[in-house]
Specification:
The complex is a heterodimer of chains A (80) and B (360). In chain A, α1 (3-15) crosses α2 (38-52) and α1 (3-15) packs across α4 (69-79). Chain A is 54% helix and 0% strand. Chain A has 80 residues and is mostly helical. With 360 residues, chain B is an all-alpha fold. Chain B is built from 16 helices and no strands. In chain B, α11 runs antiparallel to α12 (262-276). Classes of the chains: A mainly alpha (80), B mainly alpha (360). Chain A binds chain B through residues 16-17, 29, 31-34, 37-39, 41-43, 45-46, 49, 56, 58-59, 61-63, 67, and chain B through 1-3, 5-6, 9, 72-73, 75-77, 79-80, 82-84, 89, 91-92, 95-96, 99, 213-214, 217, 289, 292-293, 295-296, 347, 352-353, 355-356.
Chain lengths: 80, 360
């Protein structure tokens, strides 16, 4: 699975508990659309740190890095 | 700080469980003592014993749980507001509230109607049982205004919210002390635990912390030892306040009726201390993070879980009620274990569709 799929799978399986074949728009805002709430975002960050062996610094905890799947992917790619 | 937020949520979820098990511990001491010894109830002979003081300390220590949840919620609603120039839209607010409504209804019916046999329950009984949910719904509804004020006048917001919250505590105190003052009846309308004035400060601190993240972090680190000393002092003052009010009112068992004015300051100090020592490794932080991610489900299920086990022990093993060293671990295991098991079961493929309805 590539990075986008990995992130999407986590969001679908763990956060929104969707069906296996659920697809998310990689450019849709996860935050303002209500797909991810506060707990969901914290869990997502914990997942990214564990899965990709990165550390998300406080200064990087800005909406720009986590708003959409594509932005998350770009953020992770920069960190790896 | 981010990891700490999830760990904080996990610690807060544990504290919710401990708060409820401590309550049942007091029940066993004062109101159910006739189940394991020859005595009329209520009896307050256990006041002053070591088990009593331990439960009392636990009960007050865990007061920071709901404030912690509110702080985290305030933090993230403000975080989400930063993602768009429109800030928080009512669509987002209602999507958040929607996730709360079905679990609230389901578990309220289960606890009030099926377990407690309140037929029908009053609105106050329903709103009080899971008071965090109507409370956070109100804060979500108020969040567009709160965030707007926080962006321009954060200090004014905090002072205003703090004064509003403290005034609610003082109204409760004055009512207990039978002190009358003008406007008392109107102010008393704001005292129900599920109504927004009572805990608004915690939510606003979360909002302000999020909007001023770097400044907040710097401030916390600069004053961390003062914060720690405040937390310890305020914890001690909780006991002093309780004794003082108990003496003045003549009410021996005050806990169900009064949580204290100092509690507001203590709870906030405790939440802030959590971030004041970022290099201090919290034991079992990974497990706590995992629990933190399930905190809402734990909050919902622990109440009926502990109720069922407590009453099962009341009828089947009443002798255990006299031994808190046995009683408490059993209740804690139920309060934490049953929610976690249920959530794991409802995540299975065939039933996961209804998971959000039950656990949010």
């Amino acid at each position: 699975m590539d990075t986008t799929e990995t992130i999407e799978r986590f969001i679908v399986d763990e956060l929104i508990l969707g069906e296996r074949d659920t697809k998310l728009d990689p450019d849709k805002s996860l935050l303002t659309s209500g797909i991810i709430d506060s707990l969901g975002l914290l869990r997502l960050i914990a997942f990214l740190e564990d899965q990709f062996k990165i550390t998300v610094k406080d200064i990087e905890m800005v909406p720009d890095n986590f708003e959409t799947i594509n932005k998350i992917k770009a953020f992770v790619a920069n960190k790896i | 700080m981010m990891r700490r937020l999830l760990v904080l949520n996990g610690v807060a979820a544990l504290m919710v469980v401990l708060n409820h098990t401590a309550s049942y511990g007091f029940n066993a001491m004062f109101f159910w003592a006739d189940r394991y010894r020859e005595v009329s109830v209520p009896t307050y002979e256990a006041i002053g014993t070591i088990p009593y003081y331990i439960l009392f300390a636990v009960h007050h220590l865990v007061e920071f749980a709901i404030p912690a949840f509110l702080f985290v919620s305030g933090y993230f609603i403000a975080f989400t507001a930063k993602t768009s120039t429109a800030g928080i839209t009512m669509d987002l607010v209602f999507s958040r509230i929607k996730k709360l409504i079905f679990p609230f209804i389901i578990w309220s019916i289960l606890v009030n109607v099926i377990l407690l046999r309140r037929l029908p329950p009053t609105a106050e009984e329903v709103l009080q049982m899971y008071y965090y949910i109507p409370l956070i719904a109100q804060y979500y509804l108020l969040s567009p205004i709160i965030i707007r004020i926080a962006k321009k006048h954060w200090l004014l917001l905090l002072i205003g919210a703090g004064l509003l919250q403290l005034s609610v505590e003082f109204v409760v105190l004055f009512r207990l002390l039978e002190i009358s003052f003008p406007g008392q009846e109107i102010l008393a309308l704001g005292t129900p635990v599920w109504l927004f004035p009572g805990r608004i400060f915690y939510f606003c601190v979360g909002v302000v912390a999020s909007l001023n993240q770097q400044r907040f972090t710097d401030w916390i680190l600069k004053y961390r030892w003062a914060m720690f000393a405040s937390m310890v002092s305020l914890f001690a003052l909780l006991f002093v306040e309780y004794s003082w009010v108990s003496k003045l009112t003549g009410i021996v068992w005050l806990v169900p009726r009064y949580s204290g004015v100092i509690k507001t300051l203590f709870a906030m100090a405790m939440v802030l201390c959590f971030f004041a020592f970022p290099n201090l490794r919290i034991p079992f932080d990974k497990w706590l993070s995992d629990v933190g991610g399930k905190s809402f489900g734990i909050y919902l299920v622990n109440t009926p879980a502990i109720f069922v086990v407590a009453y099962a022990m009341y009828y089947v093993t009443p002798w255990a009620l006299g031994y808190q060293i046995i009683y408490q671990p059993v209740l804690i295991a139920a309060g934490l274990g049953i929610p976690l098991v249920l959530m794991a079961v409802f995540k299975k493929p065939r039933v996961r569709r209804i998971y959000p309805l039950i656990f949010g």
